[in-house]
Amino acid sequence: MKTSVQAGVAGLLACGTLLTVVLVTRDGDDNHTGVTYSTTSKGPYVALGDSYTAGPGITDPTGTPAGCDRSTGNYPALVAAELGLKGGKFRDVSCSGATTSDLTSSQHTDKGTNPPQLRALSSDTRLVTVGIGGNDIGFSSMIKRCVAMGALYQLTGSGKYFTEDAPCAREADAGSAAVEKKIATTGDRLTRILTEVKRRSPEARVYVVSYPALLPADSADCGRGMSLAPGDVTYLREKEQQLNTALRQRASEAGVGYVDTYTPSTDHNACTAKNTRWIEPLVPENPAAPVHPNARGERGMAEAVLRAVKSAL
User: Fold this and answer.
1) Is 210 a catalytic site residue?
2) Which residues form the SGNH hydrolase-type esterase domain (predicted)?
3) Which member of 71, 201, 219, 292 is catalytic?
4) Cα distance between residue 47 and residue 80, in whole Å
């Protein structure tokens, strides 16, 4: 999903102003996934995707262009390391802010242009992961809008004076059909992308990677860390689940694998403790972009991918 780590992308409403959060911390998390294999996998491996694949803010940016904010601690890098794929056997072309269109067209960032991601594929490619779709449905914009309304909800007594506990969802109800249409359209685009991936790399094992759980099942557990009204926690969680369902269905229809990162992350969402969470809240306490996976989260996603790859070996 879309991010701009340099200035921070999370919004907080304070006195009517949407503020940005600047990420400045780093930690020393071990990059080992905890999943070990006795044999290496055949490469090359190509990773396609957006910021949840790129892993912005976890380490200093690596690769080109710098504006893609790829981390050496993201799940593609961890998967490649665990499978013993080095040098030309591994290419990570994921880019923060990418949509499905950026897999077939160049993506312009504030620090350079990322070529069409599918260009990295060839007939020699043997493993492909695809993590895309959040930016197509405007999920980051949805979060920002709900955060702004949630901050106002909290400033006006958190339901003490008004009974409405889902102001963002209520406003979105009129446009719910539009969100559902965006999800369906994203699914159609993914189907075309997967067809092209298989055409370019007919011998590759292909996996669509889902989005991990951002928010808890119990909206009361989210507190102020995400600045959301309780009902809007439910609303956003449901939209993410709908997107993941669409990704799973399109992967199945295309005859490719699907990696569920949502289920193993449900107890590690952005509203859990600092030393437990996979997703950072609006103000990160671990190195990561706001509302994005931290190093722990990328390791968890890598383990999910590796389990899928192992089952196919």
Assistant:
1) no
2) 47-299
3) 292
4) 10
